[in-house]
Amino acid sequence: MRKFSNVLACLLVTGSLLSACGGNNNGNKPAANGGEATPAPAATNAAEETAAPTEAPVDDITQRKVTIKIHYPTPDLTEVRAQEDDKIKRFQEVYPNVEIVKDDWQYNVSEIGVKMAANEAPTFFNTYATEAKFLVEKGWVADVTDLWNNYEFKDQINPVLQNQFIIDGKVYGVTQKGYVTTTMINKKMLDEKGVAVPPMDWTWDDMLNTAKGVADTKKGISGIAPMGKGNEAGWNWTNFLFEAGGEIQKIEGGKVVATFNSDAGVKALDFYKKLRWEAKAVPQDWALGWGDAVGAFQQGRTAMVMAGSDGVIEQALNQGGLKPEDVLTYPMPAAEKGGKHTGVLGGDYLVINPNASKDEQEMAFRYITFDYFSDKGLEALDAIISQRKTDGKYYIPPLLDYYAADSDFGKKTKAVYDKYDIVYQYSPEIMALLDGKPEAQYNTQDYYATMSNVIQELFSKDGTDSKAQLDAAAKTVQEKFFDTIKVE
Length: 488
Prior knowledge:
This protein is α+β, with helices and mostly antiparallel strands. It has 17 helices and 13 strands. It has two domains: 8-178 and 347-428, D-Maltodextrin-Binding Protein, domain 2 (3-Layer(aba) Sandwich), CATH 3.40.190.10; 182-307 and 443-484, Periplasmic binding protein-like II (D-Maltodextrin-Binding Protein, domain 2, 3-Layer(aba) Sandwich), CATH 3.40.190.10.
């Protein structure tokens, strides 16, 4: 879910330095204009900007003149442009045969077809986790399987993220960063009420019982704060739709068909009713947007909140005064024991133009991955964490980065983290339980907005009919939005 771009600093870094932006991590809340996190420029990880040029492999392509049009930051991002310019300089020191043309067009599903038809799309461009199948079916992304297979670090890339752009065994893009919605728990609040910490492999019942045990309506304390205002409300609820085995939409006969009014949808909506009316665990003032819900968690007014992890933890520790041991990061709960811990997955990817020549595609791939897995970047990361310690602040790494946590590079990064007592540590159990599912490909925000109205009615009025609510919402989404789409 695309996060509102209210803190420019957070767009200045990607990868392992994302958390250094002060907590507003990209891609852990919704925005009004699309499906996921606004992609940061290609590989502009501040930690890796200091990477010394490496020697280019000796092959024919380095002896031929090649021009690539790169994905470039928009004019308002002056510092990011400076970082990208530095990367261009370092890349051309290694590949002096490559001419680089800057293109600040940002991916838009309504514009990509025109760009391709006019042959105006960059050699590589940014896109989101939702777009993989769409772009592949349209033939608007290059099959880079051969380039991927020859990439020395392919086995160290984060599979949870990268797999979104591997379709039928073929590779069509390279991950930059991403998130899977998680649940943050204030352990201190549980301890104060004598409520047991739930198992990491938890269920809806565990979430319900935990929330019910902590809630204290007389004191204005809620057990959980599902977002109930804006598109965030629909976004939060969609995690439960996925956990129940439901889907937002399907493609049938060249049309997009709403499917969230299924038995799974009813089950997920009924669970929300239990949280609100049976457990009385939802805030009385339930009209909370992303900032409101995260603020309530930071201030100790709710024991649980659902979002991308690092932004929430950043605020809780560095603004709310909580200690790392008080803030637990959990996967989303499974609907039932043994079920999947599915959370909405968002991510930023770079894909290559299929109209580019083979040489252009290869150089684009080398540019995309140029700053990945840099030891110099680790040195810079160390310096940033050291400065945080000096400033008396905690450092919260992202839960998901472009590299796999158990890769050699992931282990090197963890070794840097382990040097400091101010780095937030995620439970080692969580990675094995995370299950990410991309948002809907078509009209995601319109669907979220419609479901937000459903959530608000459910929270404000006891005894609503879940099936009737969902049928009405599906009819609205179908007639106003999905029926206008023609899928070829």
